TrEMBL record:
Belongs to the PTPA-type PPIase family. It is found in: Cytoplasm. Keywords: Cytoplasm, Isomerase, Rotamase. InterPro entries: Phstyr_phstse_ac, PTPA_C_lid, PTPA_sf. It comes from Staurois parvus. It is an enzyme of class 5 (isomerase). Pfam families: PTPA. It catalyses: [protein]-peptidylproline (omega=180) = [protein]-peptidylproline (omega=0). Its EC number is 5.2.1.8. PPIases accelerate the folding of proteins. It catalyzes the cis-trans isomerization of proline imidic peptide bonds in oligopeptides. This is Serine/threonine-protein phosphatase 2A activator.
């Protein structure tokens, strides 16, 4: 909770497109996520009778399961290599369940734990905070949304009225912090399609709203 709230403070009132420091560790994490994205392209959905839970996800996940420690080793310096096996578990847990072919906020929490571990062992520093949210976590969201759409993943433990999104929770926390004391955007604008389309690249909260309207045939009106 302290980690999440610390990052929340760092992004208050700031746009996704603002200037921030991008360290070597951040660049390595971006390369890791790019690899996961590339594997989705290499593993197309298979033809199957059921609409949801495409079994090709298990093939994709098996590759991650096999390569997770190697991927994490590209981010963690050799002198800290003893941490790799444990940190890699959080990465594997952050992308969904290969048996149920589902994804939910618990998996998202595992990615937060993955980033937290990297901070605790000193791979990520205090001045990486903006990049952790705006660059790494935002890219993680993009990859997870691609997984959800490509493999038609079920929401894990969907709680219906408890959240706007079946899959994500953290971007609503950090995304709302971005909008604190905003001079023009107000809650009433979140249901305005024009406002969402014009501002989603700057604000994580509005990016979430846009994604929901794209994948679910609902109206907030």
């Amino acid at each position: 909770m302290g980690f999440i709230l610390t990052l929340n403070e760092s992004v208050k009132g700031k746009k996704l497109t603002c200037d921030y420091r991008v360290s070597e560790a951040i660049e390595k994490l971006m390369a890791l996520l790019e690899t996961l994205d590339h594997w989705i392209d290499e593993t197309p959905p298979v033809d199957q009778p059921s609409r949801f839970g495409n079994k090709a996800f298990r093939t994709w996940y098996a590759k991650l399961d096999q390569e997770a420690e190697n991927l994490v080793s590209t981010v963690i310096p050799s002198q800290l290599s003893a941490a790799v096996p444990e940190v890699a578990v959080y990465l594997k847990e952050s992308v969904g369940n290969s048996t149920r072919i589902d994804y939910g906020t618990g998996h998202e929490a595992a990615f937060a734990a993955f980033l937290f571990c990297l901070c605790k062992i000193g791979v990520l520093q205090g001045d990486d905070q903006l990049a952790i949210v705006f660059k790494v976590f935002n890219r993680y969201l993009e990859v997870m949304r691609k997984l959800q759409k490509t493999y038609r993943m079920e929401p894990a433990g969907s709680q219906g009225v408890w959240g706007l999104d079946d899959f994500q929770f953290l971007p609503f926390i950090w995304g709302s912090a971005q909008l604190v004391d905003h001079s023009t955007l107000e809650p009433r604008h979140f249901v305005d399609e024009r406002v969402v389309n014009e501002n989603h690249k700057d604000y994580m909260f509005l990016e979430c709203i846009q994604f929901i309207t794209q994948v679910r045939l609902i109206s907030f009106q």
